[in-house]
Input
Amino acid sequence: MTRVAYFPDSFHEINGVAHTSRHFEAFARRRNLPFLCVRAGGRPLRMATEGNLTTLEFSRGPLSIPLDKDLRLDPAWVRHFPAMVRAVRAFRPDIVHVTGPSECGLMGAWVARHLGVPLAASWHTNLHEYAAMRSRWLLDRLPSSGRAAAARQIENAALRIACVFYRWARVLFAPNLDLCRLLEQRTGRPCHLMQRGVDTELFSPARRERHPADSDIVLGFVGRMSVEKNVALLAQVQRELEDRGLRNFRFRIVGQGAGEPWLRAHLPRAEFLGVLRGEALARAYAGMDVFVFPSHTDTFGNVVLEALASGAPAVVTPDGGPKSLVREGATGFVAADADFAAAILRMARGPALHAEMRARAREFALGASWDAVFEKVYAAYCDVPALPSIANPA
Output
């Protein structure tokens, strides 16, 4: 059995990397695979073993920099390097897998290099697009004629830097084919699909709890309320639906983020449920009629797949990974920002179409599973040439 040391950027937080990482660890636990997960936690150094699964958590220090409400970066993370080396050496992995150029990912890559272990790296976040979007405070100071060009330069520079990191790996993974092609072109490394699965028992239309007298069309959003998720489009959608005569609708928003105060001020029709997990999250999805996901930067869209499993057809943008989950006119619509309201209206004013799309969304999600995703990852590991054994490292 392939022995995997896994260094995820995020594990306990609410985001796609953490969601995937928790399922990856659960897969290893179910299969009793030799798996070491090295990650950040809220408490001091802690190691736990369960069968062939070992987890090792290091706390972030007081110098940690907040990136978002539940995301932090510890520039002094290097202090954990000796303990990581000892743990990985004792585990004797066949491969080290990192999820990105965070402090944890960098340490994982350096541990692999130090011990002579092959490195795998998976791309989960379009950091280059995030960099451009989060630079708006700077770009807004420039003349309008130069903002677009400056944004492209920031995005291209961030992509070049990220690809330097990914070239350290022998094999790459990405959640959609467009990213796989981009990474292969930029790094010269083979790239395999590492998509996402969904728990169709948890996320199910059977969890729908709506009062018979509730005739509103519930438009749902789940995710981080931040600029890179393009959440401002929700306010535009509200205005356009009202202008076109639709009144019996409301938004159901799950999550947190820096954009929440702005959304609360501009979405009087919205209910904000905060961060939900487990059955509470599943009930929130099942009560939605249409899932509205305006992000242009998501590499896959776990939340879109969860919405489909819950029987909520989705409206997504033509950029990033979510478009690969939506079958046009069957499980939802792929639309430009200006066409989101029109796509929603087609379902709101076509009850027969909407009912058929709800059924097809559920049917599509039933074909996905986390086990199938990670079985393919392990198959790709087997194609990576082995480096000298670290059974007796110097």
Observations:
- Confidence is low (pLDDT under 50) at residues 387-394.
- Residues 205-368 form a domain with the Rossmann fold fold (CATH 3.40.50.2000).
- The two ends are 24 Å apart (CA to CA).
- The first helix runs from residue 16 to 31.
